[in-house]
Amino acid sequence: MTSLVGLLWRRARPRDGAACVLTFRGETLRGVRGRPPEGIELSVGCHWTALATLFGPEVKPLLGALMERGEGFHAHVRMAAGDLLALEGQVSGLCALLSLRHATPGEGVLHARLEELASFATVRLRAERCPVAMIELDAGGNVRWSNAAAAPLLGAAFPGSDGQLLLRNPDGAALGWHAITSVPLPGGARLLYLENIQARVASEQALQGLLATLADTFAHLGEGLAIFDRERRLSLFNPALAEIFGLDAAGLAARPSLREFLAALRDRRMIPEPASFTEWRDKLIAATSSVTGTPHTEDWSLPSGHTLRLTVRPHPDGAAAFVFEDISRDVALERRYRREMEQGQTTLDRLSEAVAIFGPSGRLVLANPAFCDLTGHGGLADLAGSPIGAVLERAEAHLGPAPAWEECRSFALDPGRPDRWDSVLPTRTGGYLMRASALPDGSTLLCLSSVSAAESAASPVTARATLSRAS
């Protein structure tokens, strides 16, 4: 190609002497004969590499070979302004000569053609080495060109439209899944791009299998489950979700966004009634993007009277799981328990007899005002949760020492105790009959009843008899 260019250049070069000749001795410019082309500024004494900077990287090795080894050359270079220059390098004695001139129209046509051929060769090389399979088909569907990556696919039947297809060879053996893109060419020909997506399809199939397994697993859960992907679209749900909220399973299968899902719940009055729905919704959506991954929990008291507990669990990959649990029964039981506790406390408060209940661990659960006053405690708030030892120790300091205090403590903490225990606690003004009973759950009921001084000095049997007659 170089010899051809040189021959054509010599035949086409002008003979009017319009060239500018640069004379180099060693590696330094020593003389300039003629007028340099426009845009090229030279000064005697400059190094030859200054020209290489002007002409670009393609000319630099040619100039280097001329200066260092005396190798002549012919070349054309396109300047930044668009002008095409013809360059000829040769050796004359101890000097290197570089001729510069504007190319003739014929040289311009020849250079453009050579550039086109070089560009075509570059494009063809890129296509050959492209890792994506490329196949050109004629109007009859016959292969007339293919690159190296398409070699394993030759012989397969190719579709007439774009899409994903499992290709097979004539023997029926699978060649893998490919994403096919068809580009029409003149004359009815087509250029096919075939991207191997076997790994992607296998991953999608594995994911679908996993989702099916998860769906089967979660189908038996009583809690409603909704998993939103990183785009906040519903990607998985179980039947309980549709049952709890009365939603259409087909609508859920359409993968609504989280905003659309919450709006549907609002329309069905299946969410709380906040002062600002927008602020509440945005706060809930923000909980799905928690950086710490801490679950967000809130209870929904619905207008229907039901209570749902929502737990939002953000995941590191950007997804978020919503778990809806119907806790209406638990809330009702808790309310009933509180009501019964309040009724029990009210009943105890109205008794004149001092009464206290200690739990299985020996800590105070309930006490009435009479017990607090008798034992020298300020009120139930000071006693709540106190161990029986501390409660009886303060009572002993207030009423006076007696063996009955230690006996009562031992009874309450003894796992093998009898059902009942009683004793008389004498005082200066009379005394008190202490009675303790073991409750079914392991708790202890303690009662203190007042007796006279004469009765407390007698035996406990007499005191008990007196109390029995009084009752």
From TrEMBL:
Ranges where the PAS domain occurs:
121-184, 212-278, 342-409
**A Pfam family it matches:** PAS_7
The record, for SMART domains, names: PAS
Recorded hits in InterPro entries, A to Z, give: Biofilm_reg_signaling (IPR052155), PAS (IPR000014), PAS-like_dom_sf (IPR035965)
The lineage's top-level taxon is: Bacteria
Name of the protein in its database record:
PAS domain-containing protein
Q: What is the lineage of its organism?
A: Bacteria, Pseudomonadati, Pseudomonadota, Alphaproteobacteria, Rhodobacterales
